[in-house]
Amino acid sequence: MKAPAVYISGIILLMLMDWTGAIQANSTAQKQGHCPRRLNVVPSKRACVCDEDCPGADKCCVFDCGAVCVPPAFTKPGVCPRRRRGSGMCAEFCANDSDCPKDEKCCHNGCGHSCIAPYTVKPGRCTRPKGTPMCAEFCYHDGQCPGEQKCCRTTCGHSCSEPC
């Protein structure tokens, strides 16, 4: 009785190994970039399952209409500047950094999204606000401050100061 059990166990083991190998053979590396937030182009192909199903650099992305092949979105380096609520145009001029020319990023403009030149965060940390209340916005980001200074929070605003 032990021989048939060993024989059946061996067959099951071979089937599992074959099944596992098939999964590894079908797994592919994802293409660069990420899926855009909105579908704003005509898909190059419909009904995809993975990136490999899509032509060229296109990615397989899921939207309300199902899975389709579209050009990938990329995140550009830099940081979007802070904006005050209600200060920008209430329109969506971009959905991803990929929609913007040159080095510009798709940033919240205070109401909608538009392409804006980013800034680089300077090294160091801001000190805790102290002293006389300063309620003014002298800067919005590090890029507006001279030299090594950073745009730091004051008691009720922001100003350029030396980092710690």
Compact summary:
This protein has 164 residues and is an alpha+beta fold. The protein has one helix at residues 2-26; strands at residues 45-46, 59-63, 66-70, 105-108, 113-116, 150-153, 158-161.
Radius of gyration, CA atoms, in whole angstroms: 26 Å
The run of helices and strands is HEEEEEEE
CATH superfamily of the largest domain: Elafin-like
CATH-defined architecture of the largest domain: Irregular
Coarse morphology: elongated
Distance between the termini: 78 Å
Domain WAP: 28-72, 73-119, 120-164
Protein name: WAP domain-containing protein
GO molecular function: serine-type endopeptidase inhibitor activity
Organism: Albula goreensis
Jot down its keywords.
serine-type endopeptidase inhibitor activity, Elafin-like_sf, alpha+beta, 164 residues, three-stranded antiparallel β-sheet, 3 domains, single chain, R-elafin, elongated, 1 helix, WAP domain-containing protein, two-stranded antiparallel sheet, WAP_four-disulfide_core
Molecular structure report:
This protein has 164 residues and is α+β, with helices and mostly antiparallel strands. It folds into 3 domains: 29-73, Elafin-like (R-elafin); 75-118, Elafin-like (R-elafin, Irregular); 121-164, R-elafin (Irregular), CATH 4.10.75.10. The chain has one helix at 2-26; strands spanning 45-46, 59-63, 66-70, 105-108, 113-116, 150-153, 158-161. The strands form 3 sheets. It has a 3-stranded antiparallel sheet with strand order 1-3-2, with no helix packed on it. It has a two-stranded antiparallel ribbon with strand order 4-5. Strand 2 and strand 3 form a beta hairpin. Residues 13-27 have low confidence and may be disordered. One of its GO terms (biological process) is innate immune response. Residues 1-25 form the signal peptide. Keywords: Signal. InterPro entries: Elafin-like_sf, WAP_dom, WAP_four-disulfide_core. Pfam families: WAP.
